[in-house]
């Protein structure tokens, strides 16, 4: 049984919000050293309590320790440390690209915190889905409210205890609770909301944020396809597909949801899947130590109903290998799944892999494009043209070849969706940018009025003619595709040089008529 989770009283949430507002206004995180101190404390929060997180996530999700070390603990420490090591570079003011027209104004982009942000964390990977966006928020200099998932009470209770011990409580606060707590949170004004979860709730979050014109990042998931080419290493593909489906009992937003495979290659793929399945799970014995359980009775009932309704052929796992009392379903592989099958209605989000035979890659692409854009799309092929064809003709949050899920660990890549799978990004600098206001700035010298003085009243014909020449742009030939190149009109640049020369020689009069 999970430990009871103490919910935050709803009438305490506005005062928590006010405390965070005051903490941010104090300017504590203006300096980079202050941000680095919090980021390092965040990394130590995870490292010092790794065993406690293993225990809590096993209690909440039945998750094997190896998976927790990989997808939650190791990834979270790395994310915080990566921000710690790079924030000094990320936060530097950025010079605008050089321009002869405006170079004298020293245009610069200032990197400034948005303010007080709200991060709403899902149950499935609660530690990483908290630490990754939070690291970006801290690096950018924001205060943050952290709404933890009530479905993982042991882990949320542990975080509620640890966050105020490791992080500045005037800048970072945990809130626990269910629907009523969420309503109060969403009624308040935030400077950014970062939500990870279902599309249904994502719409509620976006609607609430719109009342305050609050920017929102939505990480929503979806039905992620894997398209298999006969020109693949089928054993490697099978092993990685199984891992990409059954990790965390399939409760991962980037998990492979279904496989599209040419009809003539389905048998060979299924044979390879069953061979790898036998090595990894060998029915219930190994599966119970390598696969966690579903998060709730409702999730268990939903997956069970899908398996009862499917018209596909179950070739591994299935209804004969379930434990309703423990909300556990054996990793299940179903072949010959049709496009209108129960398993293809919505995101499965459980330990069931659907194998869908199609005529060819064109049919696979057409089907993927008929649905909401997935968070991740996978291709298993050794053929460069095949991979390029799939990637060039589909849309998804990310597109990956010959591997699954691990892209979330690759430094330098954004993590985010598109369309139905969400909007916005996190991880590394992309998380920093999400929580950063890019503030345009420049400093114009006085002498520029000898060039741009024509903009001031009174408006004369002479000034109008000069301004027309000054702002003229030479366009490419009508209908041009740009392949022949184009030239920008340089009158303004020449005038700038002439003015600078005039300033240095003291000959200003007559440069521009009155």
TrEMBL record:
**Keyword Protease, does the record have it?**
no
What Gene Ontology cellular-component terms does the record carry? cytoplasm
Provide any one GO MF term from the record: aldehyde dehydrogenase (NAD+) activity
Q: Does the keyword Cytoplasm apply?
A: no
Query: Keywords in UniProt for this one?
Result: NAD, Oxidoreductase
Q: Which PROSITE patterns does its entry note?
A: ALDEHYDE_DEHYDR_CYS (PS00070), ALDEHYDE_DEHYDR_GLU (PS00687)
Q: Name one Pfam family in it.
A: Aldedh
Give start and end of each Aldehyde dehydrogenase domain: 23-439
Q: InterPro entries attached here? A: Ald_DH/histidinol_DH (IPR016161), Ald_DH_C (IPR016163), Ald_DH_CS_CYS (IPR016160), Ald_DH_CS_GLU (IPR029510), Ald_DH_N (IPR016162), Aldehyde_DH_dom (IPR015590), Aldehyde_DH_NAD(P) (IPR012394)
Q: List, from the UniProt record, the residues annotated as the active site of this protein.
A: 219, 253
SUPFAM superfamilies for this protein: ALDH-like
* GO BP, one annotated term: aldehyde metabolic process
Q: Family assignment?
A: Belongs to the aldehyde dehydrogenase family.
Name of protein? Aldehyde dehydrogenase
